[in-house]
Specification:
This protein has one domain. The chain contains seven helices and no strands. Helix 2 runs antiparallel to helix 3 and helix 5 packs antiparallel against helix 7. The longest helix is centred in the first third of the chain and has 75 residues.
Length: about 260
């Protein structure tokens, strides 16, 4: 088409018909501009298609991460709730009077003592942030949901740091003063993980009264009791956040599944 206009232009010049030449020259320019615009449009569509492919890949990876977070948060919600329940049972119970009661008492406060931190599986979200690719997620509801979920994770981490300080000050430090209550562990040889647990029959009778006295002292210790109250409240609070996270995660998965299926 451009060659056609060029030929006409050459003839017009030769025939000294300037107006026709100008008309055809303008037509040639318009054709060039249209060609450029079409090329740009095709290029933009190709870039948009590539970005959509990248977005879908990120969304699929986000879905995989979030699906693992369902189990992760359920486990930690139950873990925190079990710790709150153990603290409650210790607070409501009486001081142990026998080795059997000491064993039950020990099992409960060990449940309160066990420490574990929540580690979210949010690698894809962190990659989106660090690479500056969060803008690839065009669905604002998904984007905002991910940011809100990250805030909840920050709340959980803050709560855990707060609890750790209180555990050390109110539970771990006072417990060191009556370490004989740890007599239900077999300390004769090392083991991978926790040492082997002993029964009442495995412990020499000469140690029984000392362990009962230590457990009673601990039960009646005001600092230790305050530690149990704090553990009861804080573990229940964090367990509640995990339950809320569960609902957020399920909602996000549904949004992502809907977005992936869009054409």
């Amino acid at each position: 088409m451009i060659e056609f206009f060029r030929n006409i232009r050459q003839r017009s010049i030769g025939e000294n018909r300037f107006s026709k030449y100008l008309l055809y020259a303008i037509g040639e320019i318009i054709l060039v501009v249209i060609g450029i615009l079409l090329a740009l449009q095709i290029n933009n569509k190709n870039e948009q298609r590539k970005e959509r492919i990248r977005e879908i890949n990120y969304l699929k990876n986000l879905k995989v991460d979030l699906q693992s977070e369902i189990e992760n948060n359920e486990e930690f919600a139950n873990f925190r709730f079990a710790k709150a329940k153990a603290a409650s049972e210790l607070l409501k119970g009486d001081a142990p009077d026998s080795m059997e009661e000491v064993q039950v008492y020990t099992n409960r406060y060990e449940m309160v003592f066990i420490w574990n931190i929540f580690v979210p599986n949010n690698n894809t979200f962190k990659e989106l942030l660090s690479s500056g690719n969060l803008s690839l997620i065009n669905n604002e509801a998904i984007k905002n949901g991910l940011l809100e979920l990250d805030k909840r994770y920050t709340s959980i981490a803050t709560g855990e740091r707060h609890m750790r300080r209180e555990h050390e000050a109110y539970l771990y430090d006072p417990h060191v003063e009556n370490i004989a209550a740890l007599g239900f562990f077999d300390l004769s040889e090392p083991a991978y993980g926790f040492p082997k647990r002993l029964t009442v029959d495995d412990i020499p009778e000469s140690q029984h009264q000392k362990m009962i006295d230590d457990a009673r002292w601990q039960h009646n210790n005001e600092v230790f009791e305050n530690g149990l109250k704090l553990a009861f409240m804080n573990n229940g609070f964090v367990a509640g956040i995990h339950k809320e996270v569960l609902e957020d995660v399920k909602d996000l998965i549904a949004l992502i599944e809907e977005e992936i299926t869009k054409r």
